[in-house]
Amino acid sequence: MNPYQIARDGLAMGEFVESQIQEGLQTGYFQPTDWCWREGMSEWQGLDVVFQRSSAQPVQQMPQPTLATAVNPYAAPRANLVGRLPQASSRVYVEKASPGSRLAAHILDILVFIACFLPAGLMSETALGKSDLMAYVSFGLLGIVCLINLILIATDGQTIGKKLMGIRIAQIEDSTKAGFIQIVFLRTLLGKGALGLIPFYSLVDALFIFNEDRRCIHDKIGGTHVVKVLG
């Protein structure tokens, strides 16, 4: 059984199984207003929502969670981790991206790159002067797109397609933003580029998205997964 993450007043209390939480509610170690989350839950909820309180405890009215407090305030901490949580304004990523959203983001990225070469493709090969000019325009657009993608990867772990689909690349350990080297060198150049030269590798890599963890081979090489942007 997956343990619950417990948080109180912006502090992580650690991981606890259901029996420990029930006992803690009886002894007062846990409060009904503490928050809990575990894998499979779409958002954080109060203990008095998830667990039934003992009749000996006084009834306290639990305010309805808002968007700011309902989302995971920290990214699935390790067992018994106690420490200050990120600021409320920071984004948290806990819900895995669907295969459809990842495919759509990939297609969008391809279409953006194809669009860069439209100016050169529209010109007749016989119009040499204009054709050369349009080729420069196309390569200029391609450079701009590559620069935008590099900036998005470095700052948000996203490409243009992933930005449009509201998903991003994150660390598998705690769902924080993945590093630039992880994404570019391990995940992309090695996990997709170099290994992509192996026959049928790209097909097998893509089929891994249908595993329970929704991680392709290049995700496993990079130590990443793709998650939804919440908030």
Question: Short description, anyone?
Answer:
This protein is α+β, with helices and mostly antiparallel strands. It has 10 helices and 6 strands.
How would you characterize this protein structure?
There is one protein chain. The strands form two sheets. A four-stranded antiparallel β-sheet has the order 2-1-3-4. A two-stranded antiparallel sheet has the order 5-6. It starts with a strand and ends with a strand. Residues about 55-70 and about 75-95 have low confidence and may be disordered. It is elongated. It has about 230 residues and is of the alpha+beta class. The chain has two domains: about 5-70, no CATH class; about 100-230, no CATH class. Helices cover about 45% and strands about 10% of the residues. It is built from ten helices and six strands.
Distance between the termini: 28 Å
User: Helix/strand/pairing class, anyone?
Assistant: alpha+beta
Count all strands and give the number: 6
What is the 3D shape?
Answer: elongated
- Major beta sheet, strand line-up: 2-1-3-4
- Percent helix, as a range, is 40-55%
The unreliable regions are 53-72, 74-93
Order of helices and strands: EEHEEHHHHHHEHHHE
Look at the structure and give the mean pLDDT: 79
Q: Looking at the chains present, what oligomeric state does this protein adopt?
A: single chain
Q: Tell me about the biggest sheet?
A: 4 strands, antiparallel
Number of helical regions: 10
Number of domains: 2
Radius of gyration: 23 Å
Task: Please state roughly what percent of the residues sit in beta strands, choosing from under 5%, 5-15%, 15-25%, 25-35%, 35-45% or over 45%.
Answer: 5-15%
